[in-house]
Design goal:
By secondary structure, this protein is an alpha+beta fold. It is built from nine helices and 14 strands. The chain has one domain: Sulfite Oxidase, Chain A, domain 2 (Alpha-Beta Complex), CATH 3.90.420. Helix content is 19%, strand content 22%. The strands form three sheets. Strands 5, 6, 9, 10, 11, 13 and 14 form a seven-stranded mixed β-sheet that branches. The chain starts with 17 loop residues before the first helix and ends in a 13-residue tail after the last helix. The structure holds ligand MTE and molybdenum atom (MO). Molybdenum atom binds next to loops.
Length: 336
Amino acid sequence: MTKYNRSNKPASSEITPQGVYLSRRQLIKGVTAVGGLALLWAARPKMPGSDLETVEVISTPAGTLTEGAGSIAPTAMPTPVTDELGMDLTSLTDITGYNNYYEFTTDKTEVARLSKNFNTSPWQVEVGGHVSKPGIYDIDDLRTKFDQEERIYRLRCVEAWSMVIPWLGFPLHKLLAEVEPTAKAKYVRFETLADESQMPGISAPWYDWPYVEGLRLDEAMHDLTLLSTGIYGESLQPQNGAPIRLVVPWKYGFKSIKSIVKIELVEDMPVSLWMAAGPREYGFYSNVNPEVDHPRWSQATERRIGSSGRIQTIKFNGYEEQVAHLYAGMDLKANF
Ligand SMILES: Nc1nc2c(c(=O)[nH]1)N[C@H]1C(S)=C(S)[C@@H](COP(=O)(O)O)O[C@H]1N2
Ligand SMILES: [Mo]
């Protein structure tokens, strides 16, 4: 398994503030970096009255690591926490304070405030269409039925800004396997709640609510495609799409539809809210592609939130190796 796919089953004891989370992660990286030294340090003779009793050995998919106060040699410098490309994680403050969620407002810095009291419990997700076993899933069932993994993904908005986000969630294919798509299922259509009483942005008449997105079935079945329920080890906040949202890291951010209430397996390509709003500007595929500009701006570079300057945008947002085969033989300019 690649680094972005580390398994992580957060216990309630792991629900920690970001600062603690980061230092814990840095600790783990530090241990990895010093390798044998840390093992020696952990295995050193225990002496009464020392801090050694606090050393805790935990098991991770990467092997057994030692953590806890005093478990690392002072020479083990904490290293920054990054994604698999070495890019720093975006701060929780930025991830929860700079959002696109048009059901609330188009003002990115006001989404958090306006969505603060959004009611995410009880919450159900209806899964149906061309499936053998349609069902209505309670959010609590989805959280417990499927292991919640941590996935560190880059999120590239079509507006040419980006973040690096440590999501919690489970791959969509696990849920799809449960409902058993039939031979007629060719696409997956997703819908967000549209509740005018809670979502002030829905009064805007120029969008065709509810927010709808879609994937081809093979894109939906790809292991990178995540249903996310959390960020930084904590439950999603309303502004990030609580209680459950899609994350498709190789596509522009708008494909990652928030606060999902309905997932439908369909025969025909769904028309997304953005395709309906601007068919010349927003296509069905919306794969991140620095070679295909938006009609009104370049997609060659992006602004990483929390850093200055601009960085090169990478084809398929850096996931080309994993997803390019899905588009073999397709003209990516025509199928934008
Ligand atoms: N329902 C819904 N989902 C949505 C949006 C939206 O307006 N409504 N905005 C999209 C866009 S444009 C982006 S970039 C991402 C932003 O996700 P974030 O705020 O969690 O970073 O959510 C996407 N999902
Ligand atoms: Mo976006």
